[in-house]
Amino acid sequence: MRNRNHLFPEIPAPSRALLVGALLTLASACASPELALPSFAAGEGEVPAGYEDVDALLRSAVLEGRAAGLSALVLHEGSVDYLQVHGELELGSGRALRTDSICRVYSMTKALTSVAAMMLWEEGRLGLDDSVGSYLPEWAEVNVGRYGLSGFSVVPAERAITIRELLRHTSGIPYHTWLPAPYPKLYREEFGEGPMVFGPEQAISLAEFSERLATLPVAHQPGFMWTYGAGTDVLGRVIEVVSDQPFDEFLSERLLAPLGMVDTGFWVPEEKWGRFSAAHVVNEEGRVSGVDGDGWEPYRQSPSNPSGGGGLVSTLQDYAIFLQMLLDGGEWKGRRYLSKSTVELMTDPSSAQGGPHPFFNYFGLGFEIISAKNAEKGWGLEGAYGWSGVARTHFLVDPEHEVVLLLYQQTHPFEVGLRNEVFAEMHRAMGLAVEE
After folding, report:
1. Alpha-carbon distance 41 to 138, whole Å?
2. Model's pTM, two decimal places?
3. Residue 345: C-alpha distances to residues 15, 125, 319, 342, 404 (Å)
4. Which of 54, 62, 127, 374 has a 20 to 30 A CA-CA distance from 298?
5. In the CATH hierarchy, which top-level class contains the domain 16-114+248-429?
């Protein structure tokens, strides 16, 4: 097991800003591992001993039509234990999926946006319990939708939404299509017929998106419960205001470029288009039936309103670097992005007090945190953390066992059945299985 001793003190708020420069200088004294995944196509990779059942499950899922293509990675104690791809980049094209294929990670974007916000928190430029309205005036007075015996009504919020609530999805800002009437109609009237489920897609600025979203009622009083929604998109606008630069530029300059995430962004340049996976759809039997033809155009150019909640594309290589940085306590290749204590704060169940999501796990400051109850299912052990994207991309980080897991599909609609099967097999391969 490699040495993971960290040379940096934990930084208390609010004096972080004075220490940031010193931290970055000291970081060069601490070496972090390299991570360079080999590039190969489906059918070319070798299966390491012990991972035969994992590989067989992935192959059978493609053969049975549960996915057009699958990419999977296991990092254990800083080393690649398993890396494999199966299937096609685009169903029926004959083009094999590759380890360096570019995929839509959708809501896995939220983890990067959350880390970006916490970097500003460490610098003393953002407060977790500050009101969102103190940064974005349009959120100073929020209305709340309420259902009663006389029907739907709108009442003023009892208090302001906080930055912490944006991070842990307890703000009440919803994904409107998952709510009953009249939310879908209200959102269509404001934003038109665009999907609007995973953030702004109209040709408006992120500022205008936030301003218009704030005119609509949230789903419940701030902090009342966990409601998954567009709060992380609003957080992207907060980052934009606090940093005084466009959100996508901040993310690139402070995270993507320094980490070496060269294939991660809000659009796909023409020279990389041949590596971009198609988005696929399934039929009533749950089998992949074709390509989503509308899944290409949004990625042909830089968006006017980059979605911090679901806009990024990435590769196994890039996202694995980001996750390994978190596993190593906020450091990568001699550069510190977050203090170890901040990573622990983001992924500690205590950060989610009052906000567990409906599947019985906690949700901290940007991540789902596996509870003992869910650990019994075997796909993630207690204390691990992760999240997913709507096109069935999934990640898991287990600090205790020094594990990073990634599984990419490009298929709608969302489900976690295959993720649970694959991650459980990966745990068995590492000798970390939970007896059910």
Report:
1. 49
2. 0.91
3. 17, 18, 21, 5, 19
4. 62
5. alpha beta
